[in-house]
Amino acid sequence: MTKKHYKQNNHPVFTLKIITHTNHNISQKEINRNALKVLQRLLNAGFEVYLVGGSVRDLLLKKKPKDFDITTNATPEQVKHLFKNCRLIGRRFRLAHIIFGREIIEVATFRGHHKNLKKNISMQSKKGILLRDNVYGKIHEDVERRDFTINAMYYNIKDYSIHDYFGGISDLKNKVIRLIGNPKIRYREDPVRILRAIRFSVKLNFHIEKDTAQPIQELSYLLKEVPAARLYEESLKLLQSGYGLKTYHLMRQYNLFQQLFPITSSYFTKDYSSYTEKMLSLVLNSTDLRIEAGKRINPAFMFVAILWYPLNILADELAKKNKLAYYDAIIEAGNVILHEQAKTIAIPRRHTETIREIWQLQLCLPRRRGNQAFRLMELNKFRASFDFLEMRGVIEGKEIEELSKWWLIFQNAGSNIQESMISHF
Ligand code: ATP
Ligand code: MG
């Protein structure tokens, strides 16, 4: 193990540790074939090139990486030159995507410092001008832009060593989530890092280090500044990746869930007793179980569930105030609720349509006379609507529970029994 020390003005101090290939447990065989091809070709062309981020972390933990990100000193144009199957994307920071059928390997050029830090104007502005023209940097600059120590390890394809700048290996061993640099500054630069700290802590079962955890609650309001489209993506990673229930509890504890889902959390109680809270637990738990069982999940379903009781309360109010029929009130309340939710989380239109449909079907499921039950069963969204009805049955009991039991029997019954089940309506 070699050690080099660096000290720089305004930048976090790091100690580079190089772990040679005999001293770590990553074997080349575990690296995705296409990622290896990209690494090799860049290396052979004379560039510095590393596997980086979550893949190195997960390989060290003997977990299956989600993706294999690569970083290099080659510029995107140089990368494109080497690969026929390469597409350059992104305007603010260009990235190369190497396309292998359905798989994409992302190659990023080392990032430099392109954000000026407070005062010290002359130096910083000088730097700023220089860096605005050239945001690419050296590996030791790239590493400072990364979020957590465990995400800032580089696997060098040249000699199979791991370059660990901020003690990632030791934090991995001690199961610690630690931000690189000053946590307050790093959270202000990009508040999504707050959510990432929570996400990795739950997913890896790691402890958030004291200084990294301390400012979270105080800075939670910063999430309001994050574009709603990005928060949509993050909300899925947080709540629909297999650890939703645990993540929700931790987010709630740090006042983060409240920022992303203000309507839902306005029904939070001290003892978790509201219908909304019960529904949240139920839907997140069932999503976690589905993921564990390898089943498909539809993001619309979660939003259906967590907005349903607030929707009903609003619909009641609207029905009274505007003398609307309940069905119309639900439609109207649906518009209001989805519009409000879109201010923090931009749910794509294809999902909002499904959400409305499942909500409206809740009002249709009690109508089973004549051919109605059969027609309902043929609808595309019947299955999801029934699954949701079952959850409501667990929470509300009484008629809803009976209704969901009726539908369960009806779906599985032969046609004689089905006929007799609807004959008495
Ligand atoms: P996952 O298993 O969720 O893919 P990951 O660590 O690979 O985890 P990505 O979102 O794929 O996360 O990002 C890849 C790498 O890019 C991270 O490991 C980290 O080094 C860096 N990174 C991603 N997002 C940020 C951010 N908001 N701020 C700083 N660095 C980031
Ligand atoms: Mg990743």
From TrEMBL:
Gene3D superfamilies: Beta Polymerase, domain 2, cca-adding enzyme, domain 2. It is an enzyme of class 2 (transferase). GO terms for biological process: mRNA processing; polyadenylation-dependent RNA catabolic process. It catalyses: RNA(n) + ATP = RNA(n)-3'-adenine ribonucleotide + diphosphate. The active site is at D67, D69, D147. Residues 205-266 form the tRNA nucleotidyltransferase/poly(A) polymerase RNA and SrmB- binding domain. Belongs to the tRNA nucleotidyltransferase/poly(A) polymerase family. NCBIfam families: pcnB. This is Poly(A) polymerase I.
